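thread: overnight batch results

M.L. [08:02]
morning all. the overnight job finished for the chain we discussed friday. pasting input first so we're all looking at the same thing
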Amino acid sequence: MEAILSFIGENISYIYLIILMVFVGVELISHVPSVLHTPLMSGANAIHGVVLIGAIIVLGKAETDDYFSLIIGFVGVVVGTLNVIGGFVVTDRMLEMFKKKPKK
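M.L. [08:03]
and the structure it wrote out:
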């Protein structure tokens, strides 16, 4: 328990920054018009691709006996991959909405 409290004490400014980013992100996304969601999703997919590459690099540079870094890197790669694939699926569905229906 002391290790967790000392970690929080040492990194309190980062914790505040993450909390602030969550609130700003939710507020920003909630005010985006629906017309802009498709271009924003495409941009977000590109950013998530960069995050995925970073997670792969971190995983590749981790020491073989550093299990914490290996587990965090693996989870980062898995979650980043799911995020990129899910983003492309959502973007594809949104683009399908704008296609014209075939006339009979």
